[in-house]
C-alpha cells in the first residue's frame, strides 16, 4: 500500500489520505479501514473510508479515506444515510416517551421493532356530477362578468 496524497485539514480536524493498493480481488471497506489504521497509526473507529476505485482488468485500486482526530469529530462530520437517520429519529421519540412516562409514574409500554408508516391520504374529489355542476356555475359567472363589463 503506497500513500499517494496526505493532506492535513485543520478546519475539519482530519487527515485526508489517498492510497494505491495492488490486489487480486476488490477490497471491501472494512478490510481497508484495518489497513489504513495500521498504516496511519490511528484506531479504526476514527477512520472513514469513503471511496475505493479500480479500473477494469486492473489489479490496482485507489482508496480515499479521512482519518479524524477523535471518534466525536468523525460522528460530527460524516454524513448519515437515510436509513440511519430514520432509525435515530425513532429512537429519540421512544426516549422522549420513556422520560415522560418516568415523570408521570406511568408504566413504560414495550414498542415493537417495526415502525408503522401512515398511509398517504389522497385529496378527496367531488363526484363527477357535482364537478359538472360546479364547472357550469363557474362558466355562468364568467359570462355574467363579461356582460357587466360590456354594458357601461
Question: Care to describe what's here?
Answer:
The chain is of the alpha+beta class and 152 residues long. The protein has a domain at 2-77: 2-Layer Sandwich (Alpha-Beta Plaits), CATH 3.30.70.330. Helices cover 43% and strands 22% of the residues. It contains four helices and four strands; from the N terminus they run ββαββααα. The chain has a four-stranded antiparallel sheet. It is elongated.
Describe the structure concisely.
By secondary structure, the protein is of the alpha+beta class. The chain has 4 helices and 4 strands.
Number of separate helices: 4
Oligomer: single chain
Helicity, as a percent range: 40-55%
Provide the CATH superfamily of the domain at 2-77.
Answer: RRM (RNA recognition motif) domain
- Range of strand content: 15-25%
Give the beta-strand count. Answer: 4
Q: Kindly state the mean pLDDT as a whole number?
A: 78
Largest sheet descriptor: 4 strands, antiparallel
Reading the helices and strands in chain order gives EEHEEHHH
CATH architect. name of the domain at 2-77 = 2-Layer Sandwich
Low-confidence stretches: none
> What is the rounded distance between the termini?
90 Å
Structural class: alpha+beta
Key words describing this protein structure:
alpha+beta; 43% helix; 4 helices; Alpha-Beta Plaits; 152 residues; elongated; 22% strand; single chain; 4 strands
Itemize the secondary structure elements and their pairings.
Layout: E1 2-9, E2 14-22, H1 29-40, E3 47-54, E4 60-68, H2 71-77, H3 82-104, H4 128-150
Antiparallel strand pairs: 1-2, 2-4, 3-4
